[in-house]
Amino acid sequence: MTKKYNINKSEAEWKELLSPEEYTILIKKGTEYPHTGAYNMHFDNGEYHCKACNAKLFESDHKFKSSCGWPSFDKAIDGAIDYIKDTSHGMTRVETVCANCGGHLGHVFNDGPMETTGHRYCINSASIGFEPEAK
Ligand SMILES: [Zn+2]
């Protein structure tokens, strides 16, 4: 059964709205090269939003420095993410998608910081946008 998202656009519609890289990652479930993304080493205070539909996904308080090469968070905003079992590439992983539009964000692993949640949301920079905290 396919889940109905609040935002339902065809692939052609998304292609109009997104850059080629964003389209490949969010809609075609691609992965950007490690250590290349705009937010990998970005630690300003603020919120991260879905690049496709602008839903709020992560807060900068939960971003942490990991060596994996992608933006990493130990916690998402409640209800913002859907979790899908992903058995592609011969691995069993948990895919994370935006709960509002179904856009692919990345995966979540259980090797995050033990002093907080133990989770590591490994997210493509191309899937998210950043809004600085209002001063
Ligand atoms: Zn979205």
In short:
This protein is mainly beta. The protein has helices at 11-17, 20-27; strands spanning 46-50, 56-59, 63-64, 72-73, 81-86, 93-98, 104-109, 120-123, 128-132.
Output the keywords.
mainly beta; three-stranded antiparallel beta sheet; binds zinc ion
CATH architecture identity: Beta Complex
- End-to-end C-alpha gap: 44 Å
User: What is the 3D shape?
Assistant: globular
What is the total number of structural domains? 1
Fourth-level CATH superfamily: Peptide methionine sulfoxide reductase
Amount of helix = 10-25%
Mean pLDDT: 96
Structural class: mainly beta
> How much of the polypeptide forms β-strand, as a percent range?
25-35%
At CATH level 3, the topology is Metal Binding Protein, Guanine Nucleotide Exchange Factor, Chain A
Number of helical runs? 2
Ligand kinds? zinc ion
Rounded to the nearest angstrom, the radius of gyration is 14 Å
Q: List unreliable stretches of 5+ residues.
A: none
The major pleated sheet works out as: 6 strands, antiparallel
Which sequence of SSEs, written as H and E, runs from N to C?
HHEEEEEEEEE
Strand order within the widest beta sheet: 3-4-8-7-6-5
Instruction: Kindly state the number of beta strands.
Output: 9
Name of the level-1 CATH class: Mainly Beta
